[in-house]
């Protein structure tokens, strides 16, 4: 009888040790994911700040974007070092067991990486390129990159591109860049739409992408209308555009109601048409 009791105690001690290990590892991964999320957000802020710097005779917009991307890559290496340290925690099938804890930081990292890549190349980063950033020097993966996290991270990119586009409109020569970003986001939305039946949460992010695209289109439309009202040299027109965008951001941009009717900021919901 004593032998049976001892065996039961040993079994429960093993279960307890396994549960303790699971919970401890889970907490470590949650903390690491939060740290990675914070670093990714700082990288995105850095990319915006540098890419939106002053364009002059000696510095072009393309050069600013390249400079932003290079500094962004340096910042992203800190995150890649974090993932390298997490490799022992995620060996074998452990990654899939703890994927829910890893995903938030991973998606934020992909968002920052894809934004830097867009500023550098003007294109969408591929799945293989993202996976290569999560490998050791010998080409061994820290963990397999889930397609769902890759697509959800890219979907978040459209929000940053919306901010980049609207801020670019107000800069000299930035209207062309804003139109390029608008076309790019429109293409992303159309391509991602085909994946929504297969990727959980993607449909919600697609709704946010649609809102971001609408904001870019509304800003671009407002600028075209304002520009058509004046026959002025490009430099003076840029100043007027900058003022128009300032008004757009603060007061005058249109919002779309649930029924599809647009109203301008400042109009009351209960006003008669």
How does this model look, in words?
- With 273 residues, the protein is mainly α.
- It has two domains: 108 residues, Translin, domain 1 (Methane Monooxygenase Hydroxylase, Chain G, domain 1, Up-down Bundle), CATH 1.20.58.190; 108 residues, Methane Monooxygenase Hydroxylase, Chain G, domain 1.
- The protein contains nine helices and two strands, in the order αααααααααββ.
- α6 runs parallel beside α8 and α8 packs across α9.
- The chain starts with a helix and ends in a 9-residue tail after the last strand.
- Its main location: cytoplasm.
- Keywords: Cytoplasm, Nucleus.
- InterPro entries: Translin_C, Translin_fam, Translin_N, Translin_sf.
Features:
single chain, 273 residues, mainly alpha, Methane Monooxygenase Hydroxylase, Chain G, domain 1, two-stranded antiparallel ribbon, 9 helices, elongated, disordered C terminus
């Amino acid at each position: 009888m004593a032998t049976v009791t001892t065996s039961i105690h040993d079994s429960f001690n093993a279960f307890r040790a396994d549960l303790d290990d699971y919970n401890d590892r889970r907490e470590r991964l949650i903390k690491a994911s939060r740290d990675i999320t914070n670093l990714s957000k700082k990288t995105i802020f850095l990319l915006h700040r540098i890419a939106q710097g002053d364009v002059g005779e000696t510095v072009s917009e393309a050069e600013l974007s390249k400079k932003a991307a290079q500094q962004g890559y340096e910042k992203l290496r800190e995150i890649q070092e974090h993932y390298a340290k997490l490799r022992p925690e995620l060996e074998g099938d452990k990654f899939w067991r703890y994927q829910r804890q890893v995903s938030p930081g991973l998606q934020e990292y992909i968002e920052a990486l894809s934004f830097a890549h867009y500023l550098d190349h003007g294109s969408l980063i591929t799945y293989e390129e993202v996976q290569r950033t999560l490998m050791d020097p010998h080409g061994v993966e820290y963990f397999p990159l889930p397609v769902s996290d890759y697509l959800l991270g890219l979907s978040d990119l459209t929000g940053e591109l919306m901010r980049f586009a609207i801020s670019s409109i107000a800069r000299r020569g930035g209207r062309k860049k804003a139109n390029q970003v608008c076309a790019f986001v429109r293409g992303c939305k159309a391509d991602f739409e085909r994946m929504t039946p297969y990727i959980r949460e993607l449909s919600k992010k697609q709704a946010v992408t649609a809102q971001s695209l609408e904001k870019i289109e509304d800003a671009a439309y407002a600028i075209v209308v304002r520009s058509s009202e004046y026959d002025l040299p490009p430099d003076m027109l840029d100043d007027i555009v900058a003022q128009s965008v300032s008004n757009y951001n603060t007061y005058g941009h249109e919002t779309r109601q649930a029924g599809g009717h647009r109203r301008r900021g400042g109009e009351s919901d209960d006003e008669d048409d």
